């Protein structure tokens, strides 16, 4: 199959299937220490990775003071890749519920944009994801580290991204809204939905739009 004009631009999007919590993506990993590694807290005006950010000196501190303690023990998982092809192939519908507690991701699924089907092979794509989340009252703290190698018509395309976010959250049915109050990096466009029916497991679905269709990251987690 020949490489069509515009394929390189599309592959840049295909190779960035994850913009969770508004972290961008680049051809090399964005390094951020795992805030759960020390289990510590961060003060007002600091991002969860310990850097200055989020709240300027002339701004009021965020409502939760950026002090949710991080988690230890989240395992690295290998995601499964598919091409989003509704209604046959896609994530399950999210049902909402109550987000409260500590969640460690133990399964991840990436759905590449529909229009990438001639450019990327999900069956030969690989990756690794380490992620956890804490929801307490109206506050949240989330960490996610990901690396992806997308099998494409021009060869393997590698991407990496670290996300550390903390702030306040609200829910409306299955919709999850994060305010990123403690974050240094301004959020990019993404839509978050979730399911937590109280069974001890929960799912967060991240939908990222692009010119070539939506990318979905499905994160399934054990709650404790």
Summarize the structure.
This protein is mainly beta and 224 residues long. It is built from 1 helix and 10 strands. An 8-stranded antiparallel barrel has the order 3-4-5-6-7-8-9-10.
Give me the secondary-structure topology.
Layout (H helix, E strand, L loop, with lengths): L6 H8 L65 E4 L12 E2 L3 E12 L7 E17 L2 E14 L4 E16 L2 E4 L12 E6 L4 E8 L6 E9 L1
Parallel strand pairs: 1-3, 2-8
Antiparallel strand pairs: 3-4, 3-10, 4-5, 5-6, 6-7, 7-8, 8-9, 9-10
Characterise the protein shown here.
This protein has one domain. The termini are far apart. The protein is mainly β. Strands 3-4-5-6-7-8-9-10 form an eight-stranded antiparallel beta barrel. It has one helix spanning 7-14; strands spanning 80-83, 96-97, 101-112, 120-136, 139-152, 157-172, 175-178, 191-196, 201-208, 215-223.
Which short descriptors sum up this protein?
single chain, 224 residues, mainly beta, 8-stranded antiparallel β-barrel, 10 strands
Q: What portion of the residues fall into strands of 2 or more residues?
A: 35-45%
* Amount of helix: under 10%
How many separate domains make up the residues? 1
**Largest sheet descriptor:** 8 strands, antiparallel, barrel
* Terminal residue distance: 49 Å
The sequence of SSEs as H and E is HEEEEEEEEEE
**Topology, number of strands:** 10
Low-confidence stretches: 1-15, 17-33, 35-58
Q: Count the helices. How many?
A: 1
Rg from alpha-carbon coordinates = 17 Å
Structural class: mainly beta
